[in-house]
Design a protein that fits this description.
The protein is α+β, with helices and mostly antiparallel strands and about 325 residues long. It has five helices and twelve strands. It has two domains: about 45-200, Acetylcholine Binding Protein, Chain: A (Distorted Sandwich), CATH 2.70.170; about 205-329, Up-down Bundle (Methane Monooxygenase Hydroxylase, Chain G, domain 1).
Length: about 325
Amino acid sequence: MRHIPRKIAFLLIIVVLALLFLLPPVFAADIAPSPAVPANTTPAKVEVGIFVNSIKNLDFARGTYTMDYYVHFRWTDPAISSSRFEVMNGQPSGANALVENYEDKSGPEKEEWYRVRSDFTIAPNNRNYPFESGSLPIVIEDSSHDTTDMIYVPLVNESGVDPVFELPGWSIGVPGFSVINHSYPWGESFSQLTFNVPVTKNPTDAVVQTLIPPLIFCIVALISFFLSEEHRELIALRYGLTTSMFISAVMFNFSQLASLPGIGGLTLFEKFMISVYLFLAGTIVVTTLCYISLYTWKRPDLARRINWSGLAVSILVPVGVFWLLLAMA
């Protein structure tokens, strides 16, 4: 009877050892972590459409204009509750410049419509003045979601400029979109969308308003070459024509350039006016040489040669200088 407890103790030891070998795999199976579900790293897509109703107060020389336009946002990601955006290259134009016209967030596809009026400023490019052309951009950027959460996608077919609208003196081209990731030095990057409206100055208006007056000054001065240099009263008339046209050209040039900011170079108009100055100065120089030939040197034959040779030189030199200035641009 004394050996029975030893047998029982031996069996208990065997049972405990067996349990020690079996339990770890069971617990390991229970506590093993479930496989991680990869996070969705694709940013949500917010579709954006822009429709311009009108463009006002366009001053291309100074790079300022005002636009009245609709901005349309559409998205499906439930993580985005609203389209918080800001206009990067403009400021609100007066009271009620931003009005939410419509929203629909009842279904899986959510939409918001805004009517916006903004005063814009861009860096002017007047090198081809008066034949200006360029783009009038609307630049918007999300103010709450960076590019890891959201990016803009243009709604090209739902954007444009009201076909009824006309911009006097300008032709409006086909608008276009561009989207970039705008990075900041503190490490964040936001989706930035630009809607460009191309405009071109009407060439007929540019010629009539800007180039025709100096050409008229030159034509009036040209008449002086056909006035006989052999009469003192006609010489005086020639001086009156040429000097008055030169002064008129200078005053007209100043009136045109008064509205243009400095660009660090010559505009097309300034190159043209340099040629006009050379022609008008040439008429004065030729008239002076004719007077000296007649009344100082007593050489009427030389005066006639100077007159007609001076006409050719007065035309060819300004034309050559104008093309040289164009080639140097």
